[in-house]
Design goal:
6% helix; Jelly Rolls; 46 strands; 50% strand; mainly beta; 4 helices; seven-stranded antiparallel sheet; Immunoglobulin-like; 5 domains
């Protein structure tokens, strides 16, 4: 957690003597749930400021939130603690902010005071007339500079009714060094697809000098560092993204990546402690089709909701099969929508919604408007690392739901399942609408969802039964079920999907999928095999090798294909059912280490198999190394040796299938499949 840093300026002489330490005078990121110590609100709007659990301004949750209600007209100030500026004539005030605008051009600014707030001196202000997010880094110099007891404020000036919400985060006040380029963040997200990967860094010029060249390095743990010199033009308080032209091939797994700025304008810059960054990146073994999730907050008593509902209906008609949708009817304005539920209120609180209409796409706020087609298309092109399938059947007033998810990453998440009615008519309010779509009725098991631990390629199955008699359902024949997987803290949406409707045939996935090398074949050959679903009866199977469909609607339970030495292969199998239903994608992978040498020329014995606590390997020649891979192709352990026998301890291994890659001194490589069962 970030902490507020207030440095006493009795130490300023030391800062001047030590170029390694740019003076950070004030830093606040509002990470606690209440107003930070020393911060206050002055002027109008004393009840309009609060800490929100959102991250709309672009920082990490939490953030400071200014809302329009209760309405006021005038100046409202968010005031900082006092800072000693003795000997300082100018500095930089930086912050992130995001506006949900209602109407007009609304003004915010920065001001300072050194007399406890009697006199405020404006340092900067700007009008904003559209919803968006920005980062402000403003060099300021007011009559309060050099004083011993200076407070800063971000102020809003105007009628609060003209805004919906304004969010602020990551406030920092600091002095400028001459040459100071910082890494603000790596460009890669936490999860990426495996394969050739481009690395990059976002940088910010905290110095007074324009940056024209940058020598930077990225190093993936265990690999050679990549060094690049970038020709740039980054002005003081400017930023840029630097993408290294040399890519690195990443197999599935977790990688620690270190970044550094080596030289700026051909020399070492004045502040070194912001020139490095580290990030762990998870390269996923597989991907899934992205189905963006729409969550829409509305009400039948809301006048502006009519146009957004109409636009969203047109959007849905233009994008069949491309989205998942749940609409929560709220209990305001006025008496609100009759179909409001407390569970819908929980989702409202989760997103910090205080006005309707408001839409969220994959957990990201789209403002008080319909989802835009261009933005939706961008979301649909994002890589998804969780595959989802579901089905439901209705018996009387009871709905029975089955859902499967399979992740291709390791992460903490929650699974949400909502029962909606496709179209309702009995929740008419006062806005003139007579029909409403995708209306939320019930969350299963509840609005908190189901907490899950996502483990790569380990499927999870869920079943829910709910009597809908106590809900607002009008027709049990008009239901839909939305399923989505979300990181609850960051609100990142891993994926979503509508369940297959009114069907007894749930699309169960194949079982025990394995990928091995055929050591007895005369040529390099890979073999994928699987078992039919225990509870399902599919019509056939689609097989994908490295995301390419190679066999369509086959009935066999195996697939053989030629391999290439050193290449990493993934095989995915999807079970096919009637009415175009498909199962989740089961996946296995491994690196090809096939040897053209005759295994018989150098006998290698591996036993026992299945094994419990230990595997013994015996060979005619000295064994140089044993590399153990799991079913996903990830390296579990390397055992180096120089003898004809090797014992591999299995006590730390999980139950499952492992592949032992055994290299002997005569160059012969043997691959052995071993089942570990404790």
């Amino acid at each position: 957690m970030k902490k507020t840093l207030l440095f006493a300026f009795a130490m300023l002489f030391a800062t001047a003597m030590m170029a390694q330490n740019r003076a950070v005078l004030l830093q606040e990121s509002f990470d606690d749930t209440s107003m930070p110590a020393g911060w206050s609100v002055a002027g109008f709007g004393l009840g309009n400021w609060s800490v929100s659990p959102t991250n709309n301004a672009g920082g990490a949750a939490n953030e400071m939130h200014l809302t329009w209600s209760p309405q006021f007209n005038g100046l409202s100030r968010l005031v900082s603690p006092a800072v000693d500026l003795t000997g300082i004539n100018s500095l930089v005030f930086s912050f992130k902010h995001a506006l949900d605008n209602y109407t007009g051009n609304n003004i915010i600014g920065i001001a300072t005071t050194s007399d406890g707030g009697t006199t405020w001196n404006e340092a900067w202000s700007q009008g904003y007339g559209a919803s968006n997010s920005w980062t402000v880094s403003q060099e300021i110099s007011t009559p309060d500079m050099g004083q011993a007891n200076v407070q800063f404020c971000i102020f809003f000036n105007g009628n609060s009714y003209n805004i919906n919400d304004w969010y602020f985060d990551d406030i920092m006040v600091f002095t400028l060094e001459n040459l100071d380029l910082a890494i603000t963040s790596p460009t890669l997200p936490d999860f990426i697809g495996s394969g050739e990967t481009a690395f990059g860094i976002n940088v910010f010029n905290f110095g007074a000098t324009t940056v024209t060249s940058v020598e930077a390095t990225y190093e993936v743990e265990g690999m050679e560092p990549i060094i690049e010199t970038f020709e740039v033009e980054i002005p003081s308080l400017g930023s840029e993204t630097l993408i290294f032209p040399t890519t690195t091939l990443l197999s599935p797994g977790t990688y620690n990546v270190a970044y550094s700025i080596n030289l700026v304008n051909g020399q070492e810059d004045d502040v070194l402690d912001n020139n490095t960054a580290e990030k762990a990146v998870f390269a996923a073994i597989g991907t899934a089709e992205r189905i963006p999730m729409i969550e829409h907050f509305s009400s039948s008593t809301c006048g502006p909701c009519v146009s957004v509902n109409t636009a969203m209906l047109n959007f849905c008609n233009n994008n069949p099969g491309r989205f998942t949708y749940t609409k929560y009817q709220m209990n305001w304005p006025g008496n609100g929508d009759p179909y409001y539920t407390a569970e819908g209120g929980t989702r409202r609180d989760y997103y910090g919604v205080n006005a309707v209409p408001q839409c969220f796409l994959d957990g990201e706020d789209q403002g008080y408007a319909a989802v835009q087609q261009t933005v939706f298309d961008q979301h649909a092109e994002r890589t998804a690392f969780v595959d989802i399938r579901g089905s439901f059947v209705v018996e009387g007033n009871t709905i029975n739901i089955k859902a499967d998810i399979i992740p291709f990453i390791d992460a903490d998440a929650r699974v949400f399942v909502s029962v909606n009615e496709k179209e309702t008519h009995n929740n008419v309010g006062g806005n003139g609408e007579t029909s409403f779509h995708h209306v939320f009725m019930k969350m299963l098991p509840d609005a908190q969802g189901t907490t899950v631990n996502l483990v790569t390629c380990e499927p999870q199955h869920f079943e829910f039964t709910q009597d809908m008699s106590g809900t607002h359902v009008e027709e049990m024949s008009d239901l839909e079920v939305s399923i989505w997987v979300q990181n609850y803290d960051s609100k990142e949406m891993f994926n979503s999907r509508f369940a297959y409707e009114y069907t007894e045939e749930h699309p169960y996935a194949v079982e025990n999928l394995t990928l091995i090398q055929d050591e007895e074949a005369e040529e390099n050959t890979m073999v994928a095999s699987w078992d039919a679903p225990t509870m399902g009866n599919p019509n056939g199977y689609n097989v994908y090798v490295n995301n390419e469909l190679v066999a369509e609607n086959i009935s066999d339970l195996s697939y053989t294909f030629p391999g290439e030495l050193g290449a990493f292969y993934t095989v995915a199998v999807v079970a096919l059912y009637g009415d175009d239903k498909t199962s989740i994608k089961m996946l296995a992978g491994m690196e090809n280490t096939w040897s053209v040498e005759e295994v018989a020329a150098s006998v290698c014995k591996v036993y026992p198999n299945p094994a419990n606590s230990q595997v013994r390997i015996e060979a005619e020649n000295d064994i140089e190394s044993v590399m153990v891979y799991n079913m996903l192709g990830a390296l579990v352990e390397t055992v180096n040796a120089d003898s004809k026998t090797v014992n591999v301890n299995l006590n730390q291994y999980s139950n499952g299938v492992y592949f032992f890659n055994i290299r002997q001194s005569n160059g012969v490589v043997t691959n052995q499949r071993v089942v570990v069962s404790h």
